[in-house]
Design brief:
Helix content: 25-40%
Strand content: 15-25%
Number of strands: 18
Number of domains: 2
Number of helices: 13
Structural class: alpha/beta
Largest sheet: 5 strands, mixed
Radius of gyration: 25 Å
Distance between the termini: 49 Å
């Protein structure tokens, strides 16, 4: 299998474009390539596009290259418009297509451009390097823009985080690692911070959008308010504990949350499956018929296994066992007196199981 190719972040693009724009001002000629050293220690050199300059200002763009990572910003032009100013220092802001923060809980203050801490520093460092290299006594005003940013942002977590009007300028290392799970985990952590700042001490967690309609119609819950943990249940619980939440309601489809009953906190199938084994082993406590256990072990989907439990009249006690075990492992992970509840459902079979205190937590979220 061929090695996946790394790329570079929107923050790296913004820093390179800013550096190139300043070089064009000082040299009064078009720059075709420019380089920056990323925080990871990798030197990135890339082409400069749509360059133009005047005596004291310049603008250009760098095209985002996400490598082999499925990044929605791949191929997007990241622009930097730079103007010299008499006062020393670097003034930085976001323009068209760069989001604005509207909720507390993020690193930036409300109203500021969604340019994260490391990219801000990269842009400032790149600009200061040019100012010192060319012996300029003043500073620079820099505006980062992304013409397609508002459209692209609809495919990101930004609307959920209260970032409006465009994308965020991101990157902690300056490099995009292909198929990086860390990027998603970092996003979950940020979203939890926003929830804590805006919703106080209670948090709803769900793996994804699955079950939105069911939970709204049958439980009166809006899963759009939940933090999407994807497969990273354990990390999400860790972040929730660190953030100081006191009430946590977890809602998930049987296909993922049944794994919690075996202490599996990363529910991706490549890490662990065991769905049928978990259901079958718990069913073995409720039936003397070994053929039932064998039939469950032969199922391809959890819905098929649930159908067998229903036919045998043992669905409720088996699901109680599964929910109780899931609660045991969740509480063990939290290691704290956080009030936690679990709801497990199936779109085909409806509500399957709830922990004892889940109903009280549901009322708190309605």
């Amino acid at each position: 299998m061929a090695e996946l190719r790394s790329g570079y972040t929107t923050g790296t693009c913004a820093a390179i474009a800013s550096k190139a724009a300043l070089r064009m001002i000082f040299e009064q000629k078009i720059v075709e390539k420019e380089s920056v050293m990323t925080p990871k220690g990798v030197l990135i050199t890339t082409g400069i596009e749509e360059a133009e300059f005047q005596e004291k200002s310049a603008s250009c763009a760098v095209r985002k290259d996400a490598g082999d990572d499925p990044d929605v910003t791949d191929g997007t032009l990241i622009f930097s418009a730079v103007k010299l100013r008499k006062e020393p220092g670097i003034e930085l802001d976001g323009g068209k297509g760069v989001g604005r923060v509207t909720k507390p809980g993020l690193w930036q203050e409300i109203g500021e451009a969604a340019i994260n801490k490391v990219p801000r520093q990269m842009i400032r460092d790149a600009a200061q390097e040019m100012i010192e290299e060319y012996g300029f006594d003043g500073g620079a005003s820099i505006v980062i823009s992304v013409p397609d940013g508002e459209k692209i942002a609809q495919k990101t977590f930004n609307p959920r985080l209260g970032i409006v009007g465009g994308i965020s300028i991101l990157g902690t290392t300056g490099i995009v690692e292909p198929m990086s799970e860390q990027a998603l985990i970092d996003t979950i952590k940020v979203e939890i911070g926003v929830k804590k700042a805006n919703e106080g001490e209670k948090l709803m967690i769900a793996p994804g959008n699955y079950g939105l309609d069911f939970m709204r119609e049958h439980m009166g819950l809006d899963l759009n308010r939940a933090v999407r943990c994807s497969n990273f249940v354990g990390e999400t619980l860790d972040f929730a504990k660190s953030a100081g939440f006191r009430k946590i309601l977890m809602i998930g489809h049987i296909g993922k949350f049944v794994k919690l009953a075996a202490g599996i906190m990363n529910t991706h199938s490549r890490n662990a499956d065991g769905r049928m084994e978990i259901i079958a082993s718990n069913a073995s406590f409720e039936t003397e018929d070994i053929t039932v256990v064998r039939r469950i072990l032969g199922c391809l989907t959890t819905d098929d296994a649930i159908k067998i439990l229903k036919e045998e009249g043992i669905l409720e006690p088996v699901m109680k066992r599964i929910v109780d075990k899931a609660m045991f492992y969740v509480n063990h992970r939290l290691q704290d007196d956080i009030e936690t509840g679990i709801i497990i459902f199936s779109n085909e079979h409806g509500l399957l199981g709830m922990s004892e205190n889940a109903e009280a937590l549901v009322q708190a979220f309605r």
